[in-house]
Every structure is written in C-alpha cells, then in structure tokens.
Task: inverse folding
C-alpha cells in the first residue's frame, strides 16, 4: 500500500490535499510526506506513525536522534550519512546498530550501512524532513535550500526543528492544473552552428523535455543544452518568496542547492518573476545586490554585463527561473529564443507529469 492510499483510507487527509501534495512533489521534489507536512496537512508526529504502520519499522523519535551515538556517527561519516539518508542511533543489546533511515526498506542502503559500520543493521523509520534536520545538526552539512522553511516569529512553540521544517499555516497550495497543448512556434530562424562544441542539440533537448519521466530529466536537459552555449546557467526553484538553487552549469563556490536568494527589491530574477516573462539586459539595480550574491556563489569573475532570466510557468505561477549569462557579451538571440521554447516545453511536461500522478 502507498502512503497516500493509507492516509486517505484512514481519513488523515482528503483527496484534494493529496493531489496538492502530489503536484508539489512533481514541481519541487521531496517525498510525499515532506510535501504534506510543508503544506500543513500533516504534522511530523502523525506522519511518523503512518510511516511506521506502512513500513512495519519502529519510529526514530527526536529523543533517540538527539542522543545518537557519536562514535557511530563518526564511523559512518557525513558523506555516506547524507547519501544513504541515515542517522546511526545506538548499539542495541542484540549487537545490531539501530539506524534511522528515510527508507528502511531500501535493502542496498541497509547493506551499505552494515558494511560501513561493521555490524548488522536494525532500521528505524524517520520522516525525510526530520532526517535532514538531524543530518545537518550532527554533521554540520547545510541542507538544500529547498528543504529549509521559514516561519513567522512567535508562531512555533515546538522550537527550532519544527520551525525549520514547517511554516506556520503551511505554504501556499498550488492551483489546480489542467493540461493544455503547447503552442508551436512559428517563424523560427534556421539553426546556426554555435561557436564552440555543444553536448546536446536543441532538438535533442526538446525531445528530452517532452518525454521526461521526472523533474530531474527536465533540469538535466537545460544544463546539457547550455554547455558550449553560455558561461553559466542556474535553475532556481521558486517557493515562499525565495529562489532556491536547484541545478547549474557553473563553477559554484558551494553546492548550488545551498543557495537561496530573496525575491524582493530589484533584480533580474525579481523582474522575470513579477512579469512572468523573459528578462534580458543589465541588472536593473545599480548596486546589484542579488546578482552580486549569485555571481559570488557561482564564481562569475568578471561579472557579466548582461543577464538572461527565463521563467518556467505552470498556469499563471512561476515555478522555475532559468538564469543565464555569457561573459563575451549579451546572450545571442537564438539562445534566448531556444531557452524560451524549452521553458514552454517544460511547462507542458510538468503538467503531463502532474496529470499522471492523478491516475497512478
């Protein structure tokens, strides 16, 4: 049985709430339970109990996670802990190691943990949001910006963990989507060979987005298409008034997933977001605070004179911003046109994926 089915059967959520969480999952990633919590439809304790019922494993409670064995944590190491989404808890009387896992049914992950820790594993189940919080707490590795929530001061009596996991009242629920055919472009210029080798032809990028089976394939098509055509590309997830880094073609000074830029004030990102249309030109603010932070994060030196930002819309809502710059001058007209076409195709694919979640 799937989590959504169990929650519906027990009356924990309604069908419209499940559909909203599934739509968010298509657009922003994360597990279904994560999206239900972020939308305010479930709290972490109730989600934990349903995950335990579904998986048949005991719950890793906050007290167990707080008291995690430091020696086991060090033996596993930050990289493997994050890769396996696992937090070692303690050595049990049986000699097994109790380990909190986001997916305790993942046999290869359990085998990898046993090999790394040198003992048999007794998995405990933990919600994704709680696991990510404790991975950050114990190993000091920042979470992806997509998983960090900000609540209003004074509204969260349960402390820092929940404040950073679930906003007060939940996040805005996405609108109901219906699939509309993408309008074909007319009058396109014939393709011109780029000045440097590229790894993915425009037609191939179109095909990859049109047939994408998930959001990561859409992002990958943008990144591969950008190689050889521009100096930097960053795809942002737009949530809660922030642009959170998702994927990039650049030389970031830190993982792009840790980058979060506010959509406020004056910036190229803000302009494209507010207009729901392409921004092309010099950054609109003379001081360029947002662009400067972005350039520092992706190692853009010297900074570009002009930038391009193309929104990916789902209905009337911006879900991604695609930022591009070329240090040799403004982005070429063909690049602008093709990125706009790819963005339109991404919208159609998102809608197709959302429709598929309803029938699965």
Result:
């Amino acid at each position: 049985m799937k989590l959504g089915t169990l929650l519906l059967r027990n009356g924990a959520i309604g069908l419209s709430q499940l559909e909203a969480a599934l739509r968010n999952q298509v657009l922003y990633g994360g597990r279904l339970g994560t999206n239900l919590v972020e939308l305010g439809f479930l709290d972490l304790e109730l989600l934990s109990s349903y995950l335990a019922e579904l998986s048949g494993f005991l719950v890793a409670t906050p007290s167990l996670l707080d008291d995690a064995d430091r020696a086991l944590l060090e033996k596993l190491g930050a990289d493997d802990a994050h890769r396996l989404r696992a937090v070692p808890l303690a050595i049990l009387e049986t000699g097994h190691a109790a380990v909190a896992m986001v997916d305790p049914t993942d046999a290869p992950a359990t085998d990898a943990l046993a090999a790394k820790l040198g003992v048999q594993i007794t998995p405990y189940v933990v919600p994704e949001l709680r696991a990510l919080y404790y991975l950050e707490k114990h190993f000091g590795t920042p979470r992806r910006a997509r998983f960090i929530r900000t609540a209003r001061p004074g509204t969260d009596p349960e402390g820092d963990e929940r404040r950073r996991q679930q906003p007060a009242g939940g996040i805005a629920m996405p609108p109901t989507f219906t699939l509309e055919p993408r309008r074909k472009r007319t009058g396109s210029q014939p393709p011109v060979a780029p000045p440097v080798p590229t790894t993915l032809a425009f037609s191939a990028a179109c095909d990859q987005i049109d047939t994408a089976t998930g959001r990561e394939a859409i992002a990958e098509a943008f990144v591969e298409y950008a190689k050889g055509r521009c100096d930097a590309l960053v795809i942002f997830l737009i949530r809660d008034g922030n642009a959170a880094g998702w994927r990039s073609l650049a030389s970031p000074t830190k993982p792009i997933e840790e980058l979060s830029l506010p959509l406020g004030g004056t910036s190229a990102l803000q302009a494209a977001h507010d207009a729901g249309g392409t921004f092309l030109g010099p950054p609109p603010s003379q001081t360029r605070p947002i662009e400067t932070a972005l350039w520092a994060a992706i190692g853009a030196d010297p900074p570009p004179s002009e930038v391009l930002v193309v929104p990916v819309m789902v209905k009337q809502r911006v879900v991604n911003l695609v930022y591009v710059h070329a240090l040799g001058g403004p982005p070429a007209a063909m690049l602008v046109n093709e990125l706009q076409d790819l963005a339109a195709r991404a919208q159609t694919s998102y809608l197709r994926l959302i429709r598929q979640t309803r029938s699965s």
Notes: The CA atoms of residues 69 and 90 lie 5 Å apart. Residues 150-196 have pLDDT under 50 and may be disordered. The chain has two domains: 3-163, 202-359. Residues 333-359 form the longest helix (27 residues).
